[in-house]
Amino acid sequence: MIGSPTASMMIPTPRMTPESNGSSPRSFDSHGHTALHRAALYGHESVLAVLLQAGADHTLPDSTGLTPLHLATKQGHISVVNLLLTSDPQPWNIVSQVTHTGESALHLAVQAKQPAVLRVLLEHSGRVVNAQDWLGRTALHMACESNQQELVEMLVQAGAQLDIRDFEGQPLLHSACMGARL
């Protein structure tokens, strides 16, 4: 019932902390998602900011190895990606965190075709630009395979190496040919 004390206590306000309604920023659901994962997934920047202030751990992976940064990256939530990166004194550490298949946030930005997010990640990535997934593919391999010229150019300008081979020994040119369907 609207206006009842019980209903008004359940509606979050900017002054509420996660603990004030009995929840914890460290609780997780059956998928291994914390409230921070959910806020990142759905692009709720203000909720994310409150959770970070309350001590939520932005480096915790879910049951598939996805961190809040990975989820925000895949969804293209650039403001959430920015907030997560600027809230960490060493943002390259969270950019370099990998999923269970070895994919970094850079890999995921390329897969999701998110050039704006990739640009932000590259600003904070350091040497992570050449990170390889469990098949030995870099984000540049993936961009070439999916024929994403804009992302290829961004990665090369950020220092992606052109001579890295995947774990099958295939050179980058092979990935580029696959992307062009040659």
UniProtKB/TrEMBL annotation:
<feature type="repeat" description="ANK">
    <location>
        <begin position="135"/>
        <end position="167"/>
    </location>
</feature>
<feature type="compositionally biased region" description="Polar residues">
    <location>
        <begin position="18"/>
        <end position="27"/>
    </location>
</feature>
<keyword id="KW-0040">ANK repeat</keyword>
<dbReference type="InterPro" id="IPR036770">
    <property type="entry name" value="Ankyrin_rpt-contain_sf"/>
</dbReference>
<feature type="repeat" description="ANK">
    <location>
        <begin position="64"/>
        <end position="85"/>
    </location>
</feature>
<protein>
    <recommendedName>
        <fullName>Ankyrin repeat protein</fullName>
    </recommendedName>
</protein>
<keyword id="KW-0677">Repeat</keyword>
<feature type="repeat" description="ANK">
    <location>
        <begin position="31"/>
        <end position="63"/>
    </location>
</feature>
<dbReference type="Pfam" id="PF12796">
    <property type="entry name" value="Ank_2"/>
</dbReference>
<feature type="region of interest" description="Disordered">
    <location>
        <begin position="1"/>
        <end position="32"/>
    </location>
</feature>
<dbReference type="InterPro" id="IPR002110">
    <property type="entry name" value="Ankyrin_rpt"/>
</dbReference>
<feature type="repeat" description="ANK">
    <location>
        <begin position="101"/>
        <end position="133"/>
    </location>
</feature>
